[in-house]
């Protein structure tokens, strides 16, 4: 297991977890979300290839109501 | 109808029928949001970029309710206090894949939510260089507006009064000055409280009005949305019609001749 931070909260994921795996785990696959890994945007097409490392900081955002 | 087709709002290389842009914040729920947005007739609809709440079960995105095929969704950078932060939010919004447009807000003060124009200019330059269509929310200050235009902003969006204040158009003179000097569209953003404010704003000759709280905080947001739609159209038509001159003294409307002897 390795420790990462997702949307400001720490979380354990198994070694070898990709960004796409994390989204599946969070039941966010298929939803229009945007992912940032250590302040770099992870493009949709790269989610399978990008693996998570200990200490990674992930932000998962979407659109909400706003002016 | 033909009037409206002739009078399209041309913005960022696109053409829109409605000159009213609405936000989607502060509604009681997604159903009310969609009902109000539809009643407003707006085509451009702003949204915010925020963290997904991972604790909420089946957290639903606004997009589950607002169809990007029906509305042109415009991500904002609300809540950002620096150029860097605003650029970060803009890029996240673009990555959703709907467009490369951004409603750029860089706030300088928590209490008044007035813009930090230096950071706003810096962020505009960065985002324009990065290929964005940038619509910056700014003060009703001509010099800043000209700098934003020089920086490549697709429109300039001066405030009518502070965000969420509902004070209406407090300085129509500044707005007219700004409109007379800019080549890009001028869209008045923030401060409109009720339909007469929207109408008065459009009567200054600006290209559009953007509002959120005036609808969401109305007792009946859907009815107010319809009122705003009509007010924006009325104000635009009145501007194009050209109002009569003001006089200090009365001028009779009925003929003086033919009165009974």
Secondary-structure arrangement, i.e. CATH architecture of chain A: Roll
The CATH topology assignment of chain B is TIM Barrel
Mean pLDDT across every amino acid position of chain A = 95
Question: What best-fitting shape of chain B do the alpha-carbon axes yield?
Answer: globular
Largest sheet of chain A: 5 strands, mixed
| CA-CA gap between termini of chain A | 41 Å
In DSSP terms (H or I, runs of 4 or more residues), the helix count of chain A works out at 1
Q: What is the rounded distance between the termini of chain B?
A: 48 Å
For the biggest sheet of chain B, the summary is: 3 strands, parallel
The strands making up the biggest β-sheet of chain B line up spatially as 3-10-9
Strand composition percent of chain B: 15-25%
Helix content of chain A: 10-25%
- The CATH superfamily of chain A is known as Beta-grasp domain
Provide a count of the helices of chain B.
Answer: 9
User: What is the topology, as strand order, of the major beta sheet of chain A?
Assistant: 2-1-5-3-4
Question: What would you call the quaternary organization?
Answer: heterodimer
Structural class of chain B: alpha/beta
Which percent bin holds the helix content of chain B?
A: 25-40%
CATH topology of chain A: Ubiquitin-like (UB roll)
General form of chain A:
globular
Structural class of chain A: mainly beta
């Amino acid at each position: 297991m390795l420790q990462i931070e997702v949307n400001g909260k720490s979380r354990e994921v198994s070694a070898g977890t990709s960004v796409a795996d994390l989204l599946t785990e969070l039941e966010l696959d298929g939803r229009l979300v945007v992912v940032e890994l250590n302040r770099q945007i992870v493009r949709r097409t790269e989610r399978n290839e990008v693996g998570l490392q200990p200490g990674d900081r992930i932000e998962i955002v979407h659109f909400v109501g706003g002016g | 109808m033909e009037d409206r087709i002739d009078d399209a709002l041309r913005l960022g290389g696109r053409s829109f029928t409605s000159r009213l842009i609405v936000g989607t914040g502060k509604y009681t729920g997604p159903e009310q949001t969609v009902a109000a947005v539809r009643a407003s007739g707006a085509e451009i609809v702003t949204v915010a970029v925020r963290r997904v709440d991972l604790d909420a079960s089946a957290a639903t995105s606004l997009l589950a309710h607002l169809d990007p095929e029906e509305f042109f969704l415009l991500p904002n950078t609300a809540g950002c206090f620096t150029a860097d932060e605003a650029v970060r939010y803009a890029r996240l919004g673009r990555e959703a894949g709907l467009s490369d447009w951004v409603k750029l807000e860089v706030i300088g003060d928590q209490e008044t939510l007035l813009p930090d124009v230096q950071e706003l200019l810096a962020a505009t330059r960065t985002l324009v260089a990065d290929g964005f269509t940038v619509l910056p929310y700014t003060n009703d200050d001509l010099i800043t507006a000209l700098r934003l235009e020089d920086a490549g902003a697709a429109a300039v969006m001066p405030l009518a009064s502070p965000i969420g204040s509902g004070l209406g158009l407090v300085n129509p003179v500044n707005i007219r000055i700004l409109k007379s000097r800019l080549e890009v569209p001028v869209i008045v953003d923030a401060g409109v409280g009720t339909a007469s404010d929207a109408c008065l704003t459009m009567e200054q000759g600006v290209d559009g009005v953007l509002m959120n709280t005036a609808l969401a905080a109305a007792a009946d947001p859907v009815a107010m949305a319809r009122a705003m739609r009509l007010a924006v159209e009325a104000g635009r038509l009145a501007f194009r019609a050209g109002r009569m001159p003001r006089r200090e003294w009365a001028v009779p409307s009925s003929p003086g001749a033919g009165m009974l002897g």
